[in-house]
Amino acid sequence: MSTFYIEQFGCRATQADGAAIERQLLDRGCTPSSSPSRAEFVVINTCTVTSAADAEARDAIRKIHEQNPAAKILVTGCYAQRAPEELTALPGVSFVVGNSHKPQIPQLIAAQQNNFVQISPVALQPAVSHSPGLLIGDVFKATHVLVAPVLGGEGNHTRPTLKIQDGCNNRCSFCVIPFVRGKSRSLPAEAVLSEIRRLSDSGFQEIVLSGINLGSWGRDLSPRADFLDLLRRILDETPLPRLRISSIEPLDVTRDLIALIAGTDRIAEHFHMPLQSGSDNILAAMHRWYRTEHYARRAKLIREFLPHAAIGADVIAGFPGESESDHQATLRFIRSLPFTYLHVFSYSARPGTRAAALESQLSGPIIHRRASELRALGESKSAAFRRSQIGRTHRVLTLNRPPKFSAAPWTPALSSNYLKFRIPEHFPANQFLDVRGTCSFDGYLNSELASPVHFAQASV
After folding, report:
1. Which letter does DSSP use for residue 143 in this model?
2. How far apart are the first and last CA of the chain?
């Protein structure tokens, strides 16, 4: 049977799609390759959230083609949905498959196993383009959610990511994602619970729920369902020790959600709420649905219920029309709130979005300088949070040691409130330990054991 390799780019949702493709290929008898240079089929699963993400995908395609000219390269994902013609023009690309047709990739590869003969996309599903090798359709007609937990990633396959929602009905002026992933759609609750039970039965101690707009889960189902009710069912109907929620929009962070997390030790004390800007003028121009007062209210409520919770945010530097006053307002707003980390993005114009058509685009040096100032502030916030946790006891989950740390005399671990710990000596991955932070160093908290070690969980 054919050998394959999947090259992943982008967010947790994109990685989850790649995991689903891998599961389907394995079910069809295909064999994973350890390297793209040895694979017959290479699937490039792309992101398109920034121009840098596009460039990274193109560079990977060129490099793989140079290393393995005989490989059939299939490009899919968000970049493939947005600009398929750009990708079909690259040497070595045999197929470009948009998100609209992503579930059919295993079928497509299976049809090509013996002889890579071009087939018409109409044999699979009606597509906008009938060009050989190009499968692109109307992504807004998609009703599926590709499902398979993401088990890969450096030190992360002890914490699988399960995508339960895809697409987005919002129309933020800077964001291309709704146009490449379609409308919001949810994995039914029973399927979510089934996946979590399966992973928990396999020995996993923590699962991360993800989605493009996770808080909107269930609104498209019939009957309509609620994300908070899903969390309650996970707590009531599965044995999972710890659940972690990935990025969630601020207006979906309700008092009831915060209270639920505060009332259990089985949901991580970790909130990642995209902010994007601390200026109400820019939030309005971005077509965001909240203002700084709404965001601040939620951050303060989290800290009231959960004094030691992680609170993270995405921030965009250099949105079109952002004045120096707007930028300073963002810096002041971030300083005023108990953030524990930031993800800072330099604004990148995405073709087809409203923001890309604005005339008030900022220069690269201005964007770079503002992004640097935001990152410095984020690092300062992170360091202060780590220092505040010294002396406290944390229940941490041991992780697999990344290759670059394989010989280190310590074990990496992650706390409920998203702190990275160094635990002295080697311990198996996927175990809960009680540790006490001793000092902050290089982005980690060094620690000491706070209680005797008794391993009762199975290692994955």
Report:
1. -
2. 28
CA 334 and chain centroid, separation: 23
Residue 83: count of CB within 10 angstroms of its CB: 17
For residue 78, give both structure tokens: 């968000």
Look at the alpha carbons of 401, 403, 405, 408 in this order and tell me if their dihedral is positive or negative: positive
CATH class of domain segment(s) 3-137: alpha beta
Cβ-contact 213, 184 below 8 angstroms: yes
Looking up tokens 């702190």 gives 419
In sign, the C-alpha dihedral spanning 269, 338, 296, 377 is negative
**Interatomic CA distance for residues 336 and 57, integer angstroms:** 38
At the top level of CATH, which class does the domain 161-388 belong to?
alpha beta
Determine the 3-state secondary structure of 175 from DSSP.
coil
Place of tokens 């947005």: 82
CATH no. of 393-449: 2.40.50
267-301: pLDDT as tens digits: 999 999 999 999 999 999 999 999 999 999 999 99
Q: What is the pLDDT of residues 48-84, one digit of tens each?
A: 988 899 999 999 999 999 999 999 999 999 999 999 9
CATH 3.40.50.12160 boundaries in the chain: 3-137
Per-residue CA distances from 109 to 39, 90, 94, 128 (Å) = 13, 20, 11, 20
Residue 345 and residue 277 in contact, taking contact as beta carbons nearer than 8 Å: no
- For residues 266 and 242, what is the distance between their CA atoms, to the nearest angstrom? 4
CATH 2.40.50 boundaries in the chain: 393-449
